[in-house]
Amino acid sequence: MTFQMPQAGDKKTRFQRLKLFISQFDENWPKQPCAVASEEIERIKREAHIGREIYTFAGKQLLKGWPEEFQWYAENLGECGCQFNFQIDFTVYPISKNTLNKNRGHLPHLFIGQLGIDSYYLAYDYSENLPTPHLVWASYSETLFRAADTLEKLLFASAFLNYAFYEYEWQYKCIFPASISNSSSIDEMLILNVCLKSIILS
Fold it and tell me: How many C-alpha atoms does 90 have within 13 Å on its Cβ side?
């Protein structure tokens, strides 16, 4: 199969670049931005205690802000979400269906997606009190490790691995953290952490 690789660009062209790449494989991928209602954004902010001070697991006080790139997600994919379930099993939930933060706003995370069922969550991690929270894989009790530098890179990499990886003429091996012991998630962890900087948008 011949296909065009993802193209680098700026924030203004992010949705268009995702659409051009993924629509080569998935004809149902959104052709136009599908923004979520502002009421749903406010709901998830309340549930995640965005804009409020919380305490981390280590007792550090910090303020949970709303990530700029997740606002882009809300305005472009917030109602439809992103689901990759052909070669990998990974979902960034539609904001209107995201209940991961309910009764967990005191935690230093904003949970936005999940890897498989009963597995790790994709979240923004506020525990280091940085200007921009890191995007990580986490459980409800701890941060495991970085997922990607940005949500954009993770979406492009996930799309590539889900639709195009086995169309490529080479295979790539990845080293995953020794702390990951859940054998049912090893394949998904390996796939999602392969190529974030080696294949796409370094």
Answer: 26
Is 103 a residue whose pLDDT tops 90? yes
Q: What DSSP element (H or E) covers 41?
A: helix 38-47
| Band (41; pLDDT cuts 50, 70, 90) | very high
SS3 content of the chain, % helix, strand, coil (to 5): 30, 15, 50
Q: What are the two backbone dihedrals, phi and then psi, of residue 113, each rounded to the nearest 5 degrees?
A: -160, -175
The DSSP letter of residue 66 is -
d(C-alpha 109, C-alpha 81), whole Å: 19
Q: 10 Å Cβ neighbour count for 75?
A: 15
Mean pLDDT along residues 31-54 = 93
Neighbours of 177 (CB within 10 A): 11
For residue 124, the SS3 value is strand
